[in-house]
Amino acid sequence: MSTVTAPVSTEHGHPPASQHSVSTFxxxxxxxxxxxxxxxxxxxxxxxxFLIGGLLALAVRWQVAWPWSDVPVVGKLFAQQGxxxxxxxxxxxxxxxxxxxxxLVIIPILAGAFGNFLIPLMIGADDMAFPTxxxxxxxxxxxxxxxxxxxxxxxxxAASSGWTSYPPLSTNVASSPGSGWGQTLWLIGLTxxxxxxxxxxxxxxxTIILMRAPGMTMFRLPMTIWAMFITAVLQAFALxxxxxxxxxxxxxxxxxxxFFTPENNIVNNAVAGPGGGQPLLWQHLFWFYSHPAVxxxxxxxxxxxxxxxxxxxxxxxxxxxxMVYSIAGIAGLGFIVWGHHMFMSGMNPALGITFxxxxxxxxxxxxxxxxxxxxxxxxxxxxFTTAMLFALSFVSMFIIGGLSGIFMAATPxxxxxxxxxxxxxxxxxxxxxxxxxxxxxxxxxxxPKMFGRTMNEFWGKVHFFLTFVFLNGTFFTMHILxxxxxxxxxxDAYHYETFHHLQPMNAFMTYCAIGMVASQxxxxxxxxxxxxxxxxxxxxxxxxxxxxxxxxxPPGHGNFDVQPVVYxxxxxxxxxxxxxxxLMQTDxxxxxxxxxxxxxx
Amino acid sequence: xxxxxxxxxxLVFLAVPVLGVAVFAVAPAxxxxxxxxxxxxGYQIDSLFYFILALTGVVxxxxxxxxxxxxxKYDAARGERKATYIQGSHTLEVVWTIIxxxxxxxxxxxxxxxxxxxxxxxxxxxxxxxxxxxQFEWRLRYPGRDGVLGTADDLHLVNDLHLPVDxxxxxxxxxxxxxxxxxxxxxxxxxxxxxxxxxxxxFRATETGGFDIVxxxxxxxxxxxxxxRITFVSRPEFDAWLDRKYxxxxxxxxVAEAVGEMAVR
Lengths: 601, 265
Prior knowledge:
The complex is a heterodimer. By secondary structure, chain A is mainly alpha-helical. Chain A has helices at residues 25-30, 35-65, 87-123, 131-139, 141-150, 181-210, 223-254, 279-296, 299-313, 320-333, 349-377, 386-409, 411-417, 421-451, 457-483, 503-533, 591-600; strands at 266-267, 270-271. Chain A folds into two domains: 34-263 and 273-297, Cytochrome c oxidase-like, subunit I domain (Cytochrome C Oxidase, Chain A); 301-537, Cytochrome C Oxidase, Chain A, CATH 1.20.210. Chain A has a two-stranded antiparallel ribbon. Chain A is globular, with a radius of gyration of 25 Å.
């Protein structure tokens, strides 16, 4: 992986690989400044946390389906409760499930793993603009890994005031056992995740603006890169607010300031802190970051899915510019919709109306994207690879997640469904059925570029089929659970008259969730087996036309044999009058030259 | 599985709208659906819910069917046809931008009135009852015989909220400690209780009976058990109940002591 194996052409003045590498194991695989190694470090770390987050979810589902029953396998860990889960433990579980999945899986796997791996390769650069900064962005994740991981073992357990950490619950240890050291470590972890994201996003913006190959104009960039670019901008502008809010909460907890605690706040019969603050202030600051973060968690997946759809439909992307503008539109509107998380919070209801209108409008660019994806598939020549199936399922599932959003954007309906399983269904359709399926599509698609081998297609499709079936079994039924008003985050809701009959349905969902997690064993085995024993892939196993497919698989340091020069847009599939069904971005415009280049590959 | 083509995968994707619609069709029949609405304003919320359900349902079915159709029809295995080289369509982009935009804008304006009724047009009246949320119970305070909250003759109760039917009710919602949310599923009411804020909540019940009060905002380990009951009775029954509770309170504890214990401002 460390050297370029193909003959190096120095014709175009590209520095030969040997200049880059004084290879020791440590500098190659651990403290590497190579964007590809850093991307893979992010990938392996986040996949490991994905497993942990998934197991946390299973434990949550267990309690929801069979409250207070003995927990199988891991029940021995709660010996003091006779094998049952305590309600505070359950509270901690769903808090940490969301925390792990959002901050340690989705955000870093999209920006950290795929952003790092793909950006230089797809724009024709030899590396990121700031390789050292890039290395640091990975290593700043480790204090976060340690803080979040260690928080499970401190007194009172990990944070348990929800991933949103609303004060005063999160700031006052008397209100919740997890609001002791667990919450402090949570805030420390969050800060480091933020630093890592910030270092990454500065790097991505600079790299995409300054280091594009000759001829790679902004409107010849693949959608993946556009999405990564706009995501980086979002992150750079939104993140400081969360970091500042985190410090304010830390200060409330450690130095008894009162940003978020009102006067005469009595928790557990004791006056809490000096007061003078406002709990809603935290919600505003938190969602000012965390709503744009929702788009940080989906836009890169949208970009990657666009590229995969075009490749396996053998068609240009339908409406390239509208797709770019709609991503920009989502990002822009994304900054003025945070209040829709707060319709019931006690915020001025007149303000709710403005947030409702902006939220309704953000459905528009999402609709435009969906129609364009459908337009992309229309008239294509679809190849049903595993990556394509995951990409198609992204579209299918995003339709559900997008449409259910309209229910909660409608403020009167939100009165009823706010904080119910309808919301849980919605964001799992966007983040799991959307982003996670997009990530799997991307893994199956770019695996050959990462490891030089392709993953097993048969087991890939089995993995897809089982995941697709079980995820719908788990999450679709949540919609109608939400229609009953079944609330989130309750350790046991069956003692309510309104909800007492819903246990069988929850049991069904838990069986599906177990199936869904179990299906990932197939993925894990396929992934690691294929890394070593999969069929060797050439440079361009999918006949795709992006720049990354002109580099060796896996690319060595410096990525390309020769500096690529770009002559055309990213989606030249099935061009009329050309014999081959795709033209590389590097193929010169002259038809004869194009044919020559095609045969040379 | 490798040999399965567009027919099989098309059917897999077709299952999404088919089963999706089936789930929503069956749900009301098995009583997994909106709980009974007993409020005067609830129909506005429910009809909006059904309107959006119909609207999104049509879009859902149409787009998922299109996806199925394309997967089925444009399978590479069907003949040696080349894919259509098309970069997009300006007309289509305009059409599918303007139609959703107009629909969404209409939806936004259409719903404002319902929202204003529930959350903005506060009735001009003194609070019927004060609800103070704390971990993990609902503390209730009725104004007592003088009709004014915060005086020595207030009636204090926990979790058992009685209110007269067919009358406008104004609840003054507060929290002592952390965030809570006052959720009345059958009245289509939800409002967070925020420490440091007094938030008005109003509704009118159209039926008598007992219903759940649920806490819908995470408030700590006991969040799941923060249950109350709201009971609507006729005006005479309500007055009698109030009298009974009032004499019970006077019998068990002197008024001043009760106020001292409930140092909730």
